[in-house]
């Protein structure tokens, strides 16, 4: 017997953030932390996944719980582990008893020039950027289908246009783009699935002087002539997760128009 995630509803209930729970993978640093804070301000409880950033995770959870007691929980898992999806799912249910929103944000990123790329690089980049989100989404789908749930995947403009010397990462993000569209079809009508494709938001940590030159070249191709902020991405995620009940299967580029010049 096949799995049934989304029985046909006679009436689609209105989504409410009252007591709703969002899972955010990679949700304790950088863009993930801003997404967590934004959804928390909207009234959701948040289950924050992290892999190795234990201290930032605890600090963020303490801050959010200080604003609203019992509203943030932590779960540690490596998305390369086949059991990670179940671990994250179970932690959210144990903490909040429900799952309304899933944000697949966690991502590994590093260059893989073709001549230097290895199977280990392939496995690592696909694990966090494509395989992990798919199996976590599948695991959470029955719970998301109990209400009009939403999944938002953090893709990348380089899942649409490849980044030089980053072929494996670009392919992994392209897989996540197709995953977004495929699951939007397969999990409808009770679960919406969309993606946000950031452009130049936060530079990779530890950039060198040559990296700064590359940054200037990138910004010259951005029509809005400035770098975006984590708040720009978090706002787009919140829109797709909470405020767009008739939107599914879409990829929203938040890139200052950079795709126009790629």
Automatic annotation (TrEMBL):
Family: Belongs to the short-chain dehydrogenases/reductases (SDR) family.
Protein name: Pteridine reductase
The keyword Oxidoreductase appears for this protein: yes
Keywords of the record: Oxidoreductase
Species name: Wenzhouxiangella limi
PANTHER family: OXIDOREDUCTASE, SHORT-CHAIN DEHYDROGENASE/REDUCTASE FAMILY (AFU_ORTHOLOGUE AFUA_5G02870) (PTHR43639), SHORT-CHAIN DEHYDROGENASE_REDUCTASE FAMILY PROTEIN (PTHR43639:SF1)
Signal peptide feature range: none
Enzyme Commission number(s): 1.5.1.33
One Pfam family of this chain: adh_short_C2
The keyword Oxidoreductase belongs to this UniProt entry's keyword annotation: yes
Gene Ontology molecular function: any one: pteridine reductase activity
